Amino acid sequence: MRHSRWQRQDGLIRESLKFALVIVIVGVLVLDVVSVINASLGVRQNAADAADQALTTLIQTNNPTMAMQSASTFLKLHGSFLVKAGSNVATSVQGPGHATVTITATRKPHTYVFHYFQSLPWGIGPWFHQILNPRSTQTNS
Predict the structure, then answer these.
(1) Per the confidence metrics, is the pTM higher than 0.90?
(2) What is the DSSP letter of 85?
C-alpha cells in the first residue's frame, strides 16, 4: 500500500514537469511569433516614414544623395536597414517639378527558436528565411 502511494507521487511530479515544459515551449514560440509580426509591421511603417523623410529632404535640398542618406539614418535609428533606394525628379516648365522617392527596407526580428529553422530542408528553410527578413517597399511622390 505504501509503495503505490509513492508511485502516484512520482507520477504527479513527472506530469507537473511535463506540463511546465510544454508551457515554456509554447511561451517561447508565442514570443517568437510576436517578434516576427512586430518586425513585419514595423518595417512597413519605418519604410513609409523613411520615404516621407527622404522626399522632404529631396524637395528641400534637391540632392538625391542627401535624401537617401537621410532615409538610411532614419531606418538605422528605428532598427531597420536600407536595402534599396531610388529617387526621380521630373522638372516642369509650367510649375513645380514632380519628385518621387522609393525606399526598400528590411528588419531582422529577435527570435529564440525560429532562426534555427532557416537551415531546414525541403523549402521550409528558405520560407523561414523570408519570414524572418521582412521587406517593405514604399514609394512617395
Answers:
(1) no
(2) E
